[in-house]
Fold each of these.
Amino acid sequence: MIADVITIFPAMVEAALAAGVGGRARERGVVDVKVRDLRDYTDDRHRTVDDVPYGGGPGMVMKPEPLFRAVEAIAAERGAPSAVVLMTPQGRRFDQATAIRLSQLERLVLICGRYEGVDERVAESLVTEEISIGDYVLTGGELPALVVLDAVVRLVPGVVGDAGSVETESFAGGLLDFPHYTRPASFRGRDVPEVLLSGHHAEIARWRDAQRVERTKRRRPDLLKGNHHEGDRNG
Ligand code: 4HQ
């Protein structure tokens, strides 16, 4: 997988990408993620990326020219992107199904907005999809892009060591994960469930399945109601 992140805070994105399983996958060349400083695609002395909003009002808007130039430069270097994703609270809510779909694409571009957001013509004619990581307002699209990349990159074959852990985890099959325990078998008066110490693998698998269903009913009944397309609504 090839991915490019466009941001005015490249050091912040680089630092996060260097850490953990994703960072190691990048070192090994399993994924090729490049961070692009949007200011490198400006043409004025001050490397301006924003301007005042037409119609007035508070804050600044990201100018279209540097963003178009950045995506065009990436396309020329890497080939036409499979998707150009804009991180925005106006987008479709990110979920595991979207992570799976994006992980199967060859070339991904992620745009991180700042200020009040990007000029609408970027959303209309450069971006192929808008994604939100949730209904809250952040100061920029960098953390959302890192969230999306983290969820996507770990699905690329060879990134996560044990492929089994990708399959049996939370949301595989639309259910929450089962409870996990490690040593000691008794900790401050709380014991690991007997069945897990039994060595009866079929019984353990049944117990875990039952725990997943029970936890999902209690904590996330929405996941069981086939509401996969609607978020919660107010009112
Ligand atoms: N922002 N999911 C505003 C977000 C956000 C989110 C990104 C803040 C874009 C301009 N992005 N900027 N939530 O809050 O994706």
Amino acid sequence: MCGVFGAVLPAGEPTEAANVAALGLFALQHRGQESAGLAVSDGEQLMLYKDLGMISSVLDERRLPSLRGRLAIAHCRYSTTGSTLWENAQPTFRLGPQRAIAIGHNGNLVNTRQLLDELPGGRARLPASTDTELLTALLADEHAADTVEALQRVLPRVRGAYSLVVLDERRVIGVRDPFGFRPLVLGRMPHPSGESGLWADDDATTGWCLASETAALDIVGAAYVRDVEPGELVVLEPGVAPRSVRFAEATPALCVFELIYFARPDTYMEGRNLYEARRRMGIQLAREHPAETDMVMPVPDTGAPAAAGYAEEAGIPYREGLVRNRYTGRTFIQPSQTMRQRGVTIKLNPLREVVRGRRLTVVDDSIVRGNTTKQIVALLRRAGATEVHLRISAPPIYHPCFYGIDTQIETELIAATHSEEEIRAFVGADSLGYLSIRGVLAALDLPYERFCFACFDGRYPEPVPYDAASRKFMLEEAVAGHA
Ligand code: SF4
């Protein structure tokens, strides 16, 4: 999972596109904390700046003024292929025989091995070990009149999850794979003078942007126009209305985990506000798994909407029993197990006055490996909780994800190798209950067919060549193989 943002500003715009893109990306920090970067075009040439670290430390005031131009793309990374190295930060950039191009990619390709075989010169030509680097090289090499045509030729050979922001000298292009696994939305920015009304309808004076989530549009003052459709390219050029080009038929399968957990609660997806959707998941969870306790509390911050819904439905008081340090990253998103284990105690501190002597219903949004949950239950017991009843507002994760979430090894998933009773015993809870797939759909009030539920039910929308796609470091291994 990563965050992407793209901005195209009209002529005469006093604000540089880099500022808008950095601001938009800042709203997407939760989607990736390993690296950040920005690529701009002034209409003639591309410039790139990227580094490891959080967005605010990479894209600070010292860097942004030198990145001039009306077109920009930005990216924050959470690795699903390749190690946490500077080379693997994005946007990627390539000056190929046919064109200069930069790409920010959210998702994960599943036929990387096959695509590598198509690249003349092979792995030795790639400075980085990510699937995005490979895709960038293929596009920069492709004999085609322009970037749009190159994308139309290359993308039908690409399998897996990709929501892209692509930059060349003259345009920013938004791309979504035919399944639309990862979100991507189009927004319209008003002219800063405000002369043509709040939302300008004159294409010559309107700015356009692309973002992983609608919350990022809010932050830059843009209005949501529509989703980029699965199998669609949206071409943005200064002073021109967005142009839609379809490169594949749509078979929508948006990642349902985006709605359950990953995306911000103030984001809208599939016409649903995610805070409200999660609150309704909590209501369903209370119906499916009631517990007789003294209070309902969330694992902050992401468990809060579902906990509020649970408490409302169960008629049990809602309290906050854990305080989260806001200045550390998400536990799940840290790349290594060592970091994750250290993470939870740095991040969460129990409110002893609230939990002592009480029977607790603790609501969280997922259990992946189980270690974090185990530590949280232990923290609450040490703080004096008499009972801990764990309720999860998602179904058990039985299967790995190959479409951009870093759960690629089945044996790391506790639900894949343990029964529910074994998980309860491992995490040390008095009882455990997961929301069913049916419960998720009831809360969303949307049909199953609209989503990918593969990590819950194993029905992968895009067939996955397991041996190749399950290896996060495949392109690094390809180098070792060549050596
Ligand atoms: Fe999302 Fe799970 Fe599908 Fe991956 S497998 S895209 S995490 S629903």
Amino acid sequence: MAVQISPSILSADFARLADEVAAVPNADWLHVDVMDNHFVPNLTLGLPVVEALIKAATLPIDCHLMITDPDRWAPAYAEAGAGSVTIHAEASSAPVRTLREIRSLGSRAGLALNPATAVEPYDDLIGEIDMLLLMTVEPGFGGQKFLDMVLPKIRRARGLIERHGGEVWLQVDGGVSADTIERCAEAGADVFVAGSAVYGADDREAAVASLRSLAEGAV
Ligand code: DX5
Ligand code: ZN
């Protein structure tokens, strides 16, 4: 289980995106939050900006789709060249088909669960995914407080993944910071999204390095 850090550009300066991307050369991924103002009460960016980021970034793009009807829209993000495309279980009516399509287009396939969504009903989907994303805040906004109530689910999810052979990455997203990342790592997460903890820091590169060392020290 290798620790990976995926800074979320949601908290970056959108007028200077290319510079903000270049500010985290020591990260593993660049987390891009696509919100449609339907699945979540916020609107961010869509495919044209993701395509531009794929061209501008040296890091692979970790696309988190907080949109209704991901079955219709997700494949285009894979086709555009996102390294990873994550859909929400709550929004998908044909997750097996969509996850397989994402994979067949060459991206890693991710499945996201909101804080109140139990992981157990998705046990049978673990063979269909490369990453499980557990939201540790209600999706929609950066800078929210980490929800401790998700920690037992992170542990249970890690158990399910191990029973399937341990290949699937376990990502946490929301309120991940120097104060909370160790708890997440201890519970079994290995991919850490951090928005305000990275882009709210003066030195983004140092913030990534310190989150990584805290997570590595906890496991
Ligand atoms: C929230 C997004 C997150 C967000 C996290 O719905 O999915 O990726 O950027 O921001 P922080 O790390 O500030 O909670
Ligand atoms: Zn996200």
Amino acid sequence: MSKDFLADEDPVKLQEFEDRIERGEKIEPVDWMPKLYRKQLIRMIEQHAHSEIIGSLPEGTWITRAPGFKRKLALMAKVQDEVGHAQLLYSAAETLGKSREQMIVDLINGKSKYSNIFNYPAYTWADSCFISWLVDAGAIVNQVANSRGSYGPYCRALERICVEEAFHLKYGHHCVIHMATGTDIQKKMMQEAINRWWKPMLMFFGPPDKISAHTETLMKWKVKMLSNDDTRQQFLGMYVPKIWELDLTIPDEKLRKNDDGKWEYTEPDWEEFKRVINGDGPCNAERLAVRRTAEERGRWVREALNRPKATYVTPLA
Ligand code: COA
């Protein structure tokens, strides 16, 4: 696939570009890059930015219902961070030439993808605890690795995001410990949340490597530093013991660590994954409707700030 896309690139420049990546140098917005690298980065960073924005919705609905003032404060700060992450990521994607307005239009029209996991409902407080701990844990595994990648603006955004995510993780872990060691009702609520979210969580890391469309190209150019399966394995290794430690169970009888250190698990339903990422999950319509409303309600602010004579400046980092 990548060979066809690279056919019209200058072979000398392409070689220099690949040598720089091989040496571990960062590629910056003003540097030469193959069209495919630019296209792949826009796709991935844009999807990531949308995931942060949409990801704030299931947790955001719990701010007013979080148990107690301290939890409300912490959750509100966390949700604000997530929206801030989206801003950093939109800026990083803009350095590659796609405008923020176009990215938002593509999101609300259903053209762009965003993470599968945020298309599931957060019925109870325990669902919000699951997201804060384990979804953020999954995100950290992926993003710590990719922050060592090749594209400067994305790596710098990820470094900052990971610091904040590490705090979310501690907050989420604290919430889950509280539920798991609380009353029988709290423990049951937490267990039911794990049962609901486990399969979407496994899907969160992307399809298995053997059917992943982009992994090979992205790893070659050090945009992705771990494959989907490696990230999933790393997450299982770090968090399954912590879940078991809390006397909670995971709804997969096959789940075990084999002698070779690899985790064995029941594959989630990849057909369901395809449906969800293509717009047909339990909450896709609701999530996009919320974003559309936000866009419409904010239009007067954007129009009031709009100065037609000002020239648009693409951010450099
Ligand atoms: N949710 C939604 N879509 C997903 C997905 C997920 N969890 N995992 C994979 N996909 C999509 C891909 O975007 C791609 O679709 P496209 O070709 O229409 O763009 C398709 O499934 C094939 O997957 P794959 O080839 O494995 O995609 P990838 O190499 O881009 O890897 C990620 C997928 C999520 C691992 C990668 O994009 C990534 O690391 N993104 C940055 C982190 C991020 O977005 N996190 C989200 C939550 S914080």
